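Model it.
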Amino acid sequence: MKTRNIIIFTLVAMLTSACHSWDAPSEDAGFDSYGNPSLIESNVKTIAQIKDMFKTQISNSDLILVDEPMQIKAIVTGNDEGGNVYKALYIQDNTDAIALSIDQSGMYTALPVGQCILIELKGLYVGGYEKQPQIGSLYFNESKGIDQVGRMSRYEWSRHYKLLKSAEGITITPKVVDNINDLKLEEDCGRLVTLTNISMKDADGYKVFAPSDGSVTLYNGCANREITGISKDVAVIRTSTYAKFANMPMPTGKVSITGIASRYRDVFQIMPRKQSDIKSYINSEVLSAPPSN
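Modeled.
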């Protein structure tokens, strides 16, 4: 009987403890469940400083391992919420912007646009992918026979970032331009921008941004749509066939498009993040996005 009572008492105690842990979670349990909350801020560099330190590797589409502790603190400006950014994050601080290459989907749930993060760079690679500044892991491109910056695993990424509760003085707004020549390849690649008062070259009210029916040439599953009056060798609007707005008809008339100014060699590939980044533009007034099919 005594043994039975002891067992019952032990089980009750265990259940009570378990229930208590579920009923009273830590205030920061959800916040600290992502990334590496044990990271301590130290030797923080600006993104501009990082890009300057490794400018040779970036411009030559090369890469280098960061072998000493250094960090960057920035705000997420582009993620995969709208389906047009694939296994990557774009981050920006008050000085510059850069891409993070990560082999993970659905990152927008933990890393929404506007989230401030701290990133430890030691153990990661910095370089350029066709001159787009990028942080990731070592990847051997068999078709080209060269090493490149590739996607870090989700587990490696989780060790290298920490969510921060405040931006601590970092303020991000899109760089607004009404002339594509106001964007500079070195200075603005990876930055959040807004192109105002532009029109889509092939827009007729029916053609969509990224059809998958073979009607347009696709590059790695993306359609590069031309902007009226701007050479495709200067800038294009880039949309994945997997984007949630891929089948949205390109609006006729003037539009305002916000997106990440990604770079491919010497061409800007402006990537809208979601449908609401595409707005009608009439008499200098930005209107709501047209409906998709």
